[in-house]
Amino acid sequence: MHDWEVLFQGVNFERLLGGLWTSFSIALVAVLFSLVVGVPLGIAAASRNRWLRGGFQVYLQAIRVLPPLVLLFVFYFYLSLVTKVNLSAYASAITVFTLWGAAEMGDLVRGAVTSIPKHQYESAAALGLNPVQVQLRIVVPQSVRRLLPQAVNLVTRMIKTTSLVVLIGVVEVLKVGQQIIDVNRFEYPSAALWVYAAVFFMYFAVCYSISKAAAVLERRLA
Amino acid sequence: MSDTPQVLRLPKSQPVLRLDSVVKRYGERTVLDGISFDVAEREVIAVIGPSGSGKSTLLRTVNGLEPIQGGSIRLDGEEITAKGTDWSKIRARVGMVFQSYELFPHLDVMGNLLLAPVRVAHTDKAEARERAMRWLERVGLADRADAYPKELSGGQKQRIAIVRALMMQPEVLLLDEITASLDPEMVREVLDVVLELAEEGMTMLIVTHEMAFARAIADRVLFLDGGKIVEQGEPEAFFTHPQTERAQRFLDTFSFTKAREPQGLAR
Q1: Which residues are CB-contacts of B29 (< 8 A; sequence separation ≥ 6)?
Q2: A119 and B100 in contact by Cβ < 8 A?
Q3: Under a CB-based contact definition with an 8 Å cutoff, are residues B179 and B212 in contact?
Q4: Angle, in degrees to the nearest 10, between helices A191-221 and A173-184
Q5: Res. A59 pLDDT band, cuts 50 70 90
Q6: What distance in Å separates the CA atoms of residue A211 and residue B146, rounded to the nearest whole number?
Q7: How far apart are CA A67 and CA A71, in angstroms?
Q8: What is the pLDDT of residue B143?
Q9: How many Cβ atoms sit within 10 Å of the Cβ of residue B253?
Q10: Residue A131 is part of a domain; what is its CATH number?
């Protein structure tokens, strides 16, 4: 009997995959919300209006100095104490990851938009393109290209950081793994090794395929 | 010649461009201090002067990249500096080429050339493509239609930038120090294109530091200093006998006299 067989006992593997989906779905939903919120936020932060710029910096720095774990606790435990809002662990996780993702995505968008030289706007305008066309045909395509590598990096970071949500009781891939290890400790003494290895490869498979897909996309756009 | 593209010519009785007492200020600083001149159809005007004299700013006021604080600019008699001007429409008629080429890096050469004709002028794409290919052949870059800007040399980029402006069949072409960031051996290939355009009657306003080029191409030279036209005239007269001391001093900076005796073994 090999200890690695623990992975395929009963529904263990399906459970791990289910846990992975929980992790991944938190990240996926948060990334989608982050894009929806972060892109306009970044465009606003790239504007000349100092209030927009300043406001965004306050938000960004606030999110950056707070550990995601603290934010998770705030939204899961503290929010329900001081308000009537009682978020589920899953909803708290998505909220926190969206707050984080939107701030970072906003900063990436801001960086990409402001890195487009003024002369690019001018030469497009000089050809007779109207301001909307300048944005759509010149600024957006170039920004997306500059943005893509860092945005993918952010997405994989968000996926990996979802492992924290176990601490507010979300049963994600790592938690499922621990449960499997605990149940099988006597029957399969080295279960921990195999389960964590499986979890490792699952994270790797997800994050590496995202990186690869992004690299292909980048090459196609370049 | 019938199948090679030609610059657009319209019969005109009035100047293509008329600047009248144009004033441009950045805060307290006056960059253009009452500039007035006309540009006739087919005329080539070289604008020269020391850096900071307002040459580039002058060019940029003509297509509205710099708003002006006083005076007026007329294109074909129509005041384009009036309130409510749709600059996009004006710019489609006034071509501009920049010092740093400013091709769009995410588009290939053809994409750069087709963008404005297709999106702004709503030219049929096939027709625009045909026009682009003919221009590319003329400037010797027909084989680079699919290349991206980063794959081109500076001289090639600048020739493409010129063609990109010409694709809109502009009534006037503004050239803003188009050879200033080129390696010396690439200057020629760009200037040759401009010389050819001049021969064909393209109306041009050229800001340049290439004095020999200005002398060869211009019908008239404007010498700017401190935001004013200090002197203007025919290039031969201007370059050989400038009337003002300021212009003389400026031209002197382009010639060198031997500063020291020959040294070393040859002595």
Answers
A1: none
A2: yes
A3: no
A4: 160
A5: very high
A6: 28
A7: 7
A8: 96
A9: 9
A10: 1.10.3720.10
Say if the Cβ atoms of B115 and A123 lie within 8 Å: no
How many domains, in total, are found in chain A? 1
Residue A138 in contact with partner chain B when CB distance is under 8 A: yes
**Residue B178 lies inside a defined structural domain of this protein:** yes
Question: For residue range A144-187, what is the model confidence (pLDDT) as tens digits?
Answer: 888 988 899 999 999 999 989 989 988 889 899 999 999 888 88
Please indicate if any CB of chain A lies within 8 Å of the CB of B176.
no
Q: Give B116→chain A minimum CA distance, Å.
A: 6
Which candidate, B75, B259, B94, places its Cα nearest to that of B175? B94
Which of A119, A120, A127 comes nearest B91 by C-beta?
A: A127
Q: What CATH number did the domain enclosing B232 receive? A: 3.40.50.300
Mean pLDDT of B129-138: 96
How many domains does chain B contain in total?
1
State whether residue A114 is helix, strand or coil: helix
DSSP B23-89: EEEETTEEEEEEEEEEE-TT-EEEEE-STTSSHHHHHHHHTTSS--SEEEEEETTEESSSTT--HHH
| Among candidates A119, A137, A142 on the partner chain, residue whose Cβ is nearest the Cβ of B98 | A119
Any domain includes B142: no
- As a whole number of angstroms, the distance between CA A100 and CA A60 comes to 8
Question: Counting every residue, how long is chain B?
Answer: 267
Domain containing residue B57:
17-102+172-252
Residue A72 has pLDDT above 80, yes or no: yes
Query: Which domain does A101 fall in, by range?
Result: 3-221
Indicate which of A121, A127, A140 best probes the interface with B, i.e. most B CBs within 10 Å of its own CB: A127
Instruction: Tell me if B232 is assigned to some domain.
Output: yes
Q: How confident is the model at residue B1 (pLDDT cuts 50, 70, 90)?
A: very low
Residue B69 included in any domain: yes
Q: Tens of pLDDT along A9-55? A: 888 889 999 999 999 999 999 999 999 999 999 988 988 899 999 99
Q: How confident is the model at residue B117 (pLDDT cuts 50, 70, 90)?
A: very high
The mean pLDDT of chain B is 91
Which residues in chain B have their CB less than 8 angstroms from residue A122's CB?
65, 98, 102
